[in-house]
Design brief:
By secondary structure, the protein is an alpha+beta fold. The chain has helices at about 5-20, 35-45, 75-90, 120-130, 140-145, 150, 160-180, and strands at about 1-5, 25-30, 55, 95-100, 135-140, 190-195, 200-205, 215-220, 225-230, 240-245, 250-260, 265-270, 280-285, 300, 310-315, 325-330, 335-340, 355-360, 365-370, 380-385, 390-395, 410-415, 420-425, 435-440, 445-450, 455-460, 470-475, 485-490, 500-505, 510-515, 525-530, 535-540, 550-555. β24 and β25 form a beta hairpin.
Length: about 550
Amino acid sequence: MLLIGDSISIGYTPGVTRDLRGVAEVERIPGNAADTRNGVAGIDAWLGSKRWDVIHFNFGLHDLKVTPDGPHQVPLDQYEKNLAAILARLQKTGARLIFATTTPVPEGKLNPPRRPSDAPLYNAAALRIMQSAAVRVNDLYGFALPRLEAIQRPANVHFTEAGSSALARRVAQSIRQTLDPPRDTKAWTRHPIDDSSIGADGLRLRDVNGDDKEEIVTGWEEGGIVRAYLNPSRVGARSRWRPVTVGRVRDVEDAVFVDLDGDGRIDVVSSCEGEQRSMFVHWAPKNLDHYWDDEAWQTQPIPVTQNLMRWMFSAPMQVDGKYGLDLIAAGKQQGGAIGWLQAPENPRDLAAWLWHPLRPAGWIMSVYTTDMDADGDLDILFSDRYQERSGIYWLENPGRGMDQTKPWKEHTIGAVGLEAMFMDHADLDGDGVREVIAAIRPGQIHIYRRSGAAWKQQAIALPDWAGTAKAVRVGDIDSDGVPDIVLSCEHADGNRSGLLWFSGKGGAWQPRDISGPEGVKYDLVELVDLDLDGDLDVITCEEVANLGVVWYENPGRHP
């Protein structure tokens, strides 16, 4: 396939090449395609004699430059004529064509001069041509506009490295869908909660204001922000939720609600990987009237965590019976471990928090605090996806006080040597005993049932039309009284689904679609009746196609 475009295209080409490795051989024209006059002159040389399957092309950003004496570099009417001529030549190749709209021009003094208001005009002209010829359109303008602050350089038409990567994923997704058109499927209705940044990575729930509705907290890994979202009423659930940016930290992988200082105000703790390699506390304002005010929040690092490892996940737990809540925390790869952060007498004295590692880790995915042995205290249930440490395990709490100096005994549940992704801990059989249900990459769900001191495994295969397994959540989706399993996926390319559910009726675990082919990399899943119609809806986030934080409305009719 061939990429034709300007310097914006040059920026996203490496990412497209990487994302399509093994799917398509990506080539790009030499240099900058510049304006449409240059396109008309150069199109034959760019196409050469090679047979192209897909051509992704764009013109506009150079055409709309404002020249020193006032007019555009290529006036709008001439732009239309040139673009039509370029399209006619491209159509002769027999390739499947994708036109990308011109990305936004920011406010400010630009060199060379451009006006923000001109990009929509040139795009409208291009769309008239493409729609009349039934050419597929990749709306990069519409994708970039709501998240410009996060992905574009200040007073510059070019994008940051993260921005170019986000555009690359959008381009690659468009090409995949052209190569492998979506299958005919009726997906659930998707409602956006927030798609204004990039890289929404996981979500956690908690009622933060006592109204019996759970709010959402999410880390935007590439956008470098942590946000909470106010759960609206039933009437407002289908509109975008009110956000508050509780902090700005790089490479955030996880965020969790917790009242860390016991003042009744729900704070947020974030875990960061990448170069950040730290955990942070985002202190909620004392005045609840200011909870949804960005400026009222304060962010501080936990010093003992800095540069210790790539932090992936945390969960509040009272471990030692002293002072306030402690934190179970875990990371990945070099220096990775699972352990606990011990709260001091004054939890706001972050320099006094202590780190107690319990076990080396490869790449921790899930952490649950739950009483696995029915002895009255909380143990740690976790999944690890990486190398020799991979599998599903639980660590037995030795008890409080001096017993905390003893080792936490490790118990194996299963999936040893496999990529154990996110899991759930729920009662599937109605016998009062909870099973462990885990997504196992690439293509299975495992159910582990207790059998004395051992665990029995049941494997469920994913259908061919699903991506690779990422996360599971148990709930009664079809309201038949039998628990079902919702699965999220990554690598849901082309016509593959990234979100589906398995009916538990009769133990057959029949898969059914939720998302259809939109989205590529989904993450954690939560099940809540958001519209108060009596059935469970699905809340999740998606970070490659940048659907962001979303919920899917349960249609309530399941054959």
